Structure formats: C-alpha cells, structure tokens
Prior knowledge:
Radius of gyration: 22 Å
Amino acid sequence: MRIRRILAATVAAGLAVGALSGCTSGSTDANDGAEDGTTTLDMWVFAELHGQVYEEMAEKWNEQNPDKQIDLNITVYPYQDMHDKLLLAVNSGEGMPDLADIEVGKFRNFVKGDNPPLYDLTEAAAPYKDDIVQARLDLYTRNGKIYGYPTHVGAFVAFYNTELLEGAGIDYTTIKTWDDFSAAGQKYNQDTGKAFSVASTGVFFTEPLAIAQNGGQLFDDDGMGSPTVDSPEVVKTMEMFQTMKTMKEAGAISTIPGGSPDDEEAYGAINAGDYAAIVYPAWYTSRFVDYMPDLAGKIAIAPAPQIEGSDVLTIGGGGTGTTVLRGTEHEELGAEFLAYAKLSLDANIAVWETLGFDPVNMSVWEDESVTKNPENKFNKYFTTNLFDVLNSVKDGIGHFGSFANDNLPVVDNQFRNITLNEIYENGTPAKDALEQAQSDIENEIG
Length: 446
C-alpha cells in the first residue's frame, strides 16, 4: 500500500490557486482507484502525529478488509493554512480532499446552515457508538447528525510536581476541592517563595471546567443557544476564581510565559520547576513527555479540583473532529474507514500509545494490558496511571455544550482579550465585568 505524507510550507501565497488546482478532489480521476481495486483517499491534517496514527489505521484496515483496500494520501499543512484552504475548497466546491481533520474551534465554520459541506457520519458510527463518550460526539453533532469523529476525551486532570510539593510538605492527594487547591498554593508560596500554579491570560480553559461544575454554561439552552456569560452560575464561578486571586497577589500563582501552559515558552518554565501544579486536559501528558524531559518520574496525575457536591467532576477540553467532505466520490467508504480509524478499539489503543491522549472509546480504559503496560512511554514518565484517574471520574464527565456553540469564538475572544484581565489584573468585580462582557458579546453577534 502506498501512503504519502507531504509536509507543506506556508501556503498563504497562492492559496486560491492551491485550493482550486493543487490537490485532487474525490471527483477526479486520481480517486478512481488503481487497477487492483485499491481506492485512493486524500486526507488533510494539521498535526503530523495525527497522520502517523491514520497511517497505522489504514494498514490495519487493509489487513482486515481485503475487498475494500485503500491508499491513504495524507497531506500535512500548517494549522491556519489548512483550515483556510479547506474552507476555500468547500466554498468553491473544488479541490476538496476526501477526509480532513478540523480543530474544534474551527468546526463551526463548516457546519453553518441546514446543508453543511460535510457528510453525515451517523450511520457509520453505529457499530461503535455505545462505547464512545457521548459528550465528545456531541461536539461535532448538529441537528442530530454526526459530522465529525472526536480524537480524544480531553478530560481535565491535575498534574502535580511531587518533588516540589514534598519539599514544601504538601501531599497532593489531599487536594480535592478548589478551596484545597487555593490553600495548598498559599502554603507552597509561603514555604518556597515560588508560584504554585498558573494564571493563564492567553487561554480561557480552566474556568469553563468550574462553570460546568457549578451547573452552568456560557450559553443558554444547554450551551447551544444565546450567550449567558453573566448568568448566576458563571458569576459564582468567576467570583470564586477572583477570590483565589489572593493566591496571585501572594505569589502563589503567576502568569506564565506564552500566556498558557500549552506554549513553547511555558514548557521551559514548567520543566525548570517554576510551577508545581497544572490543571489541564489529559492530552497534556504528551506535552510533558515531548517537551519537559527533566520532569520524568516527578509528575503525578490526579483528578482535577472539584466543586463540593457537584455531579460534574470533569469535562473535555480541546479537540479535533475528523470529517468526510460531502460531494467527493467515495463518501461511504471514507465514512466507514473513518469510523474504524477514529472510534474502534484498535484506533483508540493507537491514540493512547502513539499520542498519549485519553481515548474516546472507553473500552480501552478497562484493558489493563494497554493502560498499565510498563513499557508504555507515558506510563514510564508519570508516577501515577492516567487511566486510574480517568476511571475514578468517568461517571462525572460533564456535557459542556458551550464548547460546540457556533458563537464560542466570540465569547472566547472576549474573555481572553478583555474579561480575564479585568477580573484578574484590574480587580473589576466579577459580576460587573461579566455584565459588560455580555453586552459586548451581544453587540458583536448582533
């Protein structure tokens, strides 16, 4: 089987030409299939590691489906270039790939209106659906139709530097609630003079976890309606974080280089021991292993801090939905392969072993030959087992519908650029800042 991977340089110049003529669509001769009956499927991705998983899954698919052989032609574009190129292709109806990864924040651009340019994947998902975390399928579902398959759960967890905490006399296993988290941070700073955790200014990520734990959303109608960022639940949450701002004033938390933990500058600071605790989605395991080698054997994974009495223990953060483009020649085969490559047990084992992501197929979570393999590089790195943590919170994975709202980018921009600074830096009362945010968002959406 021939599989090509092409790493593209920036394609902003000549984007229109590339979109119209640079890649073949499913309706051209290139996808008619080889003489041996193999069908070529073109796929666009923005992360090379994702492409490696798809290569592996294509090989396994061909082993299991001798009558449906595929030749997966993967093209890896830079993040923004790929999404721009794909949007131009679907708008023009020319130059579309058969399959594509779409980052969750960009997904809204491809599902507007009643007739989106994406193929309905609902039927192809049926054999696997009972094992998949429903909240993650919901991210890519519109009007009851699944238009994208998720890559991971992205369940929020806590990462603790045990060496640093033990030096300050702090037992991370006693941190259960956000109040515990705040108290540990203040003690850590008093003992060490260093920051315990991170005050992100470049990402609005941790706050939605606590909003969900407080029973709230950023939009009404279970997250799918109009903005409600000044709701009682959001106000209560942001007042809690504003109260925790005393941690920042005491030096217990501080802003981080790059504005968020998931930034190249931040990796160096965390690796150097500048922060002892990070609350982030489980896919952050890969960042530790890939970018913070000095912390191997020092980081414990634990449940994220809780709101006492809440049924929501965690939510999924971030994500990539993989789609089949409607109108290409091999929609049905593409959907069938994609369901296998994203939702099957084989696929989700590969997602963990190759990427370090928490699989959306929860049957993997129970297979200790996979989850507790001592040779797995992620199990070697961390002092605790990710799946022990995931299984302890799996009944409390909340549905945060706001992450699938078409207007989430507007709300996200408002919080990152204005509201978080108003609350955390300028000391504006949370209620006042959120009422102003609500007004600003309504004016922008119209």
